Amino acid sequence: MTRFSAWNVIRNGFTGQRGWSRQWRDPEPQAEYDAIIVGAGLHGLATAYYLAKNHGISRVAVLEKGWLGGGNAGRNTTIVRSNYMMPGNREFYEHSLRLWEELSHELNYNVMFSQRAHVSLFHSPAARDAAARRYNSMRLTGSDGELWDLDTLKREIPHLDYNNARFPIIGAAVQRRAGTARHDAVAWGYARAADALGVDIIQNCEVTGVRRDGARIVGVDTSRGPIDGKKIGFAVAGNSSRLWQMAGLGRLPIESHKLQAFVSEPLKPLLDQVVVFGVGGAHFYISQSDKGGMVFGGDIDWYKSYAQKGNLPIVQDTAEAAMSILPCLGRVRLLRHWSGVMDMSMDGSPFICKTPLDNLYLNAGWNYGGFKASPASGWYFADLIANDRPHEVIANHDLKRFERGVIIDERGAGPDPKLHG
Amino acid sequence: MIRIPCPFCGERDHSEFSYGGDGSIEYPELDAPAEQWHDAIFLRDNIRGMQTETWQHSSGCRLWLLVERDTLSHEIRSVRPAHAGIAQALEAQR
Predict the structure, then answer these.
(1) What is the per-residue burial (b if ≥16 Cβ within 10 Å, else e) of A290-326?
(2) Residue B36 touches partner A, C-beta closer than 8 Å
(3) Does B43 touch chain A (CB under 8 A)?
């Protein structure tokens, strides 16, 4: 694999771009691996990379039923932030943001991480108080957060609707280190870096069965034959319950729901930040991609679904929310719109944990938060698999937390998955 | 758009309805052990395929319905009132 560097770019510029090699191999699956990760999404690929990089475990296979980056890795709004408040979550997401800040150098791959600030609007003094509490909690964890008054906000983003009688904007909670990244580049960067360390990334390889020997998992049956693993990790958010049941483990505290997102035709530079609008029933977040498209999304579709297609009432809701804060978008045309299937958990927080089987590990339940979590998810999941014990930061991100009465519920919405959007 | 045939109001857009959730959950007795309550509150079959779920026709007759719906294709197989007494009364009228 050719390293990316200024020197290589210049050299290949003079030699007809013939000096580049394939980014990652397309290996045949071996009969056995030290570790198998099911799911070559961002979390699975990151896990494989950190297993090899941090823990020296490189006889690793990442199995993917489709193509790399074709699932939820390609079905998000690419927002990265760490404005979480609950103990456990805030350390975890702040760690993730720090990994993001170095990720392009770490992977020798430009993931186009752009720290353009994440601006959450508020519309009432009560919302401002709640934001102050949240962002002060973040600062106590070493993260950054600040409150913008109306004058600052108007100076930074002049084209919001400041005359909205129903949703008067009175300020914003801001995380300046937050931003966006290029989703495909994250998948490709992790794949390339993991492959360079010896990890086999096996695409078009669907897991069709799980082989057990009592309380141990032996291997998986796949569309490309059986593969054994000394340790196996599931990282298939959206379809976690199916794989869990394939392993004969019963039920999970998860429901699969779908979330839609949208991108407009490319526009000239319009919005420098990620802007979030959430009040009452409205929920809306928007940023502008480097190609100029306005990338935005809203609520989940409310009913449980495994279909990777969205419904029209949510398109209408999202468009209404867009017009409530950025009426200048009224004549902008949609280019594409997509839907991803997510693990919605019972408290809105994820699982990175051991399972009832000795050598099986679970990474699931990412709700809305999967993209930003990818680096830390891989980091902690690899740490869990390698050391067979959870790191203290994720000690409560296990399946038993509800039995212990430990609910990591950022929204305070209660045990109903559809409310954690 | 999913179209739900409400037994009282006829076939309507799903946006007239509020989604409840898994309709197969049976809640234990109030004094049942905590594990039984934990399982009922927190664990889900999360079926990929035909499942029974609750919807309320909140912009119509406001009754809670039990809907058999495919979670992959969104096809609806059957709709009946969730309240057993109302379901019986409806059956008797037919």
Answers:
(1) eeebbbbbbbbbbbbbbbeebbebbeebbbebbebbb
(2) no
(3) yes
